[in-house]
Amino acid sequence: VDKTGTIPTNPFTETDTGYYQGDKMIMTDNFVLEESVNGNVYVMGENIKLQDKVVVLGNVFVFGNNVESSANISGSLFAFGDNITVNGECNDMYAAGSNIVIDENAYIARDVKVAGSNLTIKGNVVRDLFSACDLTTIGGGLFSNVGGKVAYAGNELKGFGNLILIQHNDGWITAYAHNSKFLVKKGQWVQKGTPI
Question: Looking at the whole model, is its pTM more than 0.90?
Answer without folding.
Answer: no
